[in-house]
Predict the structure.
Amino acid sequence: MSRAVEKRPEAEAAPAAQILSVNNIEVVYDHVILVLKGVSLEVPPGGIVALLGANGAGKTTTLKAISNLLHSERGEVTKGSIVFDGAAVHGLPPNELVRRGCIQVMEGRQCFGHLTVEENLLTGAFTRRDGKAAIRDDLERVYAYFPKLKERRNSLAGYTSGGEQQMTAVGRALMSRPKMILLDEPSMGLAPQIVEEIFEIVHALNEKEKVSFLLAEQNTNMALRYARYGYILENGRVVLDGDAQHLRENEDVKEFYLGMGESGRRSFRDVKHYKRRKRWLA
Amino acid sequence: MDLLYKIFLDPFVQMGSAPDLLLQTLWEGLVGGVLYALIALGFVLIFKASGVFNFAQGIMVVFAALTLVGLFALLTRVGVSNAHLAAFAALGLTVVVMLGLAIAVEKLVLRPLVNQPDIILFMATFGLTYVLIGLGELIFGGEPKVMITNELFLPRGAWDLEIFGGFVTFQHIDIAAAIIASLMVAGLAVFFSKTRIGRALRAVADSHKAALSVGISLEQIWVIVWFASGLVALVTGIMWAARSDVSFALQIIALRALPVLILGGFTSIPGAIVGGLIIGVGEKLGEFYWGPLLGGGIESWLAYFIALVFLLFRPQGLFGEKIIERV
């Protein structure tokens, strides 16, 4: 941690009160490549928490460690623990996590291109055992949040626009009745207006359906507007965390992640620590 | 000039002058095509869901047929006197054996090799082929056996119908094969498009990672497709062996299915069927009308030649997965 903004407000609360807590995990790919070097984070029930950082900082790996999609990419969590909804979930297969209410929406949408939009949504209900009627109801609920998808329900998902695919991916996750969605880079490759729309829906889902979100984003500005708390990852470590508002006002974050710092830094010594981060902001 | 006449005109003149012969050739081609289509179907099921080209599909056909005949012999020996009862009990048990095989393949072959390159999985199915050959010979012996067609109520005999002034022969077993194959394909089509598991199968075929992320268990899906393809193998084995006998030589029919797959596309069930029919009919027509020109025997390579042409001009096959590209 370089400069903690302030003490985490949740830090004093009992750990069981969090819907998700990740404690000091290390992730290794292919038995040799150390990608996460001790990441800890917490998501309160009904919260939206942002995970920020540059390319390759470890955001996606953190999400995959939680959902255990890592396993299929030859990665594994070698240290630390992950507690979801009061139970240790480290090492459980992804379908078991989905059943328990933790689902990941992967980066780049990853819809099933050769299935229709509606079929895509229905695959999200694969782990459910509560009958067709309940799934039908939920389908209508998803269409209420995403009216565009209802119009396109019978088109192949591969032929829909990027925004519609992102909506399909979020809607599909919603069909599993999640307590928590791990949302990876929802703004990727989308027009600002569509990004705004997606984030508004995330906000609405959080408010009305009480779904918690852990949101990995490069679009720091957008993420900090909707999240209540944020963690900044750099090189596989959390370097900064705090309330979204505090992060927005933090000088370093402004300078390096929001691109609106005061010009004229005092000396190179202050800058060089962040030099690498600055490069991708340019 | 004479050669051109023989290639482009003479065969059609013959077709026109003896339509009964043409009809007979077409029918035999279609029947052969149905069997090719069945084998190709087994390949397509597994390829779609796991991206594995299952070299063992041919031996699975033999293994299923052997198990059926072997279990029947066993049941009659232990005193099941009613032959029909014994045959259908053997059929049911064979289905169970194929399920066991699917589970074993998933546990012992696919799961340890998950995330390995396709070629390694392909090699593993080679290994599986030889394991099944060894196992089959060990348990049932290597000598050819007679398929229990009568006991399974499969019809024998033929209809000789007088059409176009000649006689055309329709073997009952061929008609039964065509009907059973159509029913099976229709069943699979409904299963794929309407059921929850079918949808999940198509989702897995589309993207393994996305399927994992929504909570579809790949292990479960693999067992299901290997089982489905085992059932297809069983039906193929019964139908094919009913026309000859049950022997290990049957496994080369797997290689006959290759051109069918190339023609129809590796990922398409309708492709497997249409491809099978085209290859079947093409082979028979080619052999009968153009064969004498080249000294006969073109049946054995014509299919591969057609496949080669397809590889040059339409490598995804007639019905291969449409490659969706958005700009």
The first strand of chain A starts at residue 20 and ends at 29.
